[in-house]
UniProtKB/TrEMBL annotation:
This is Atypical chemokine receptor 2. It holds the Pfam family 7tm_1. It comes from the Eukaryota. GO terms for biological process: calcium-mediated signaling; cell chemotaxis; immune response; inflammatory response; positive regulation of cytosolic calcium ion concentration. Residues 339-358 have a biased composition (Polar residues). PROSITE patterns: G_PROTEIN_RECEP_F1_2. Keywords: Cell membrane, Disulfide bond, Endosome, G-protein coupled receptor, Glycoprotein, Inflammatory response, Membrane, Phosphoprotein, Receptor, Transducer, Transmembrane, Transmembrane helix. Residues 339-389 are annotated as: Disordered. Residues 64-313 form the G-protein coupled receptors family 1 profile domain. The lineage of its organism: Eukaryota, Metazoa, Chordata, Craniata, Vertebrata. It is found in: Cell membrane; Early endosome; Recycling endosome. Signal peptide: none annotated.
């Protein structure tokens, strides 16, 4: 794959690479240690574990993001900034999961798809690996501007600028994938068995260190710091104003941050440990084998982001919940009332009113109500700007 293009030898005498982002060579080992470091058990594990897990992610990611895409395209006539980013996130995730069957077959057998698809799939993998994370950051920034600055029509939140930012995200992800476009190619070893990986022509350790550092920085550390900052400020605003359903909104903010950390931290930590291994800070053959297993598992867990993250962001919006209800009702042939967000009078009681109020409230809902009540919001916005600086 494309994240850290390094080979893992089937045995130490046979240093032929098997392409996958979890596979590494071990140039830091001296020659004798390297010759004794066999990887047969690691490769045998990968041939079973990865195809199964990739298949699961492919099914979940394809179905979930297709549903999200259909709902957004069909029921959102004038897409606002949040929906623009969510739509691009769904497209990015779809393109990402489409690459997984290729890698699963490659790990279980060998690369049978030819040279063109070798470059194409590797490039698509990297572009959508990064663009998915970048679009999550865009959605966090949009929500920060909408709630903390309390300006639904902030100068950075125009439709034109949201489309421009989406184009910049795709361009940045494309730039990050240049090594795959240029260096990835097919290799035959042993005879008749092909693999697809980047050939760094003797500079493997330097490139691997650079790519891992790039992924740790762009794919985890900076997005995490931005997310913590944005949602900390959002949380402060919600605590100060105490809007209806404040608890639900705070729980949703915490869930988004925790989900990102839990999915991505183990994988990035493992990549960092591999860099220390290459720099001979610590480790031996046994440590490298343990890291091989750890990277396969943590990478697979990280890939679950394309299944769960869009759902979390989508369901933080009252609008999207309404769109989804309308879509499901159409599919199931049921009648939908024009206003599904309001409880009927016959069902109103003190407890049910509180429940409905909480259901309608979240981070996105709070921003949506600001946009729907612009005269009041302008006054509130001035207060918030003075209070938050």
């Amino acid at each position: 794959m494309a994240t850290t293009i390094s080979p893992l030898p089937l045995t130490t005498e046979d240093v032929s690479p098997e392409n996958s982002s979890f596979l590494y060579d071990y140039d830091y080992l001296d020659e004798m240690t390297f010759m004794l470091c066999r990887k047969d058990a690691v490769v045998a594990f990968s041939k079973v574990f990865l195809p199964v897990f990739y298949s699961l992610i492919f099914v979940l990611g394809l179905s979930g993001n297709l549903l999200l895409l259909v709902v957004l395209l069909r029921y959102v006539p004038r897409r606002q900034m949040a929906e623009v980013y969510l739509l691009n996130l769904a497209i990015s995730n779809l393109l990402f999961v489409v690459t997984l069957p290729f890698w699963g077959i490659s790990v279980a057998w060998h690369w049978v798809f030819g040279s063109f698809l070798c470059k194409m799939v590797s490039t698509l993998y990297t572009i959508n690996f990064y663009s998915g994370i970048f679009f999550i950051s865009c959605m966090n920034l949009d929500k920060y501007l909408e709630i903390v600055h309390a300006q639904p029509h902030h100068r950075l939140r125009t439709r034109a600028k949201s489309l421009l930012l989406a184009a910049i995200v795709w361009a940045l992800a494309l730039a990050v994938s240049i090594p795959d476009m240029v260096l990835v190619q097919m290799h035959e070893n042993p005879r008749g068995m092909w693999s697809c990986y980047a050939d760094f022509s003797g500079h493997g350790t330097t490139w691997k260190f650079f790519l891992r550092f790039q992924q740790n920085l762009l794919g985890f550390l900076l997005p995490l710091l931005a997310m913590v900052f944005f949602y900390s400020r959002i949380g402060c605003v919600l605590v100060r104003l105490r809007p209806p359903g404040q608890g639900r909104a705070l729980r949703m903010a915490a869930a988004l941050v925790v989900a990102f950390f839990v999915l991505w931290f183990p994988y990035n930590l493992t990549l960092f440990l591999y860099s220390l291994l290459d720099l001979q800070v610590f480790g031996d053959c046994e440590v490298s084998q343990h890291l091989d297993y750890a990277l396969q598992v943590t990478e697979s867990i990280a890939f679950l982001h394309c299944c769960f993250t869009p759902i979390l962001y989508a369901f933080s919006s009252r609008r999207f919940r309404q769109y989804l209800k309308a879509f499901l009702a159409t599919v199931l042939g049921r009648h939908v009332t024009r206003d599904m967000s309001q409880p009927s009078k016959s069902d109103c009681s003190e407890s049910s009113s509180l429940t409905a109020q909480e259901e309608m409230t979240g981070m996105n809902d709070y921003g949506e109500r600001q946009a729907e009540n612009s005269p009041n919001n302008r006054a509130m916005g001035n207060t918030l700007v003075r209070g938050d600086g």
